[in-house]
Amino acid sequence: MTYRLSKHARQEIERRRIPLALLEAVIARPDQVITEKAAVKAHQSRCEIGGKMFLLRVLVDDSVEPAVVVTAYRTTKIEKYWRTR
User: What is the dihedral of CA 16, 21, 24, 30, to 10 degrees?
Assistant: First the structure.
């Protein structure tokens, strides 16, 4: 997928110390893609970071070309966001 980072996403990725290679891997091959709001989809994968399991969520607006990464974050609350069906 061709994408660009919004200014907010760039700031948050840097602030949250999310490696760009990991973000790109989740965008390219997410474990799940969940529709959040209208055209925004959460590309998410479980990842081990620093010996701890996290869910990395990358929120992407794919209604424009190229798609825009709105924000990205990692959370330990995997069960809150993970869809089993």
Answer: -90
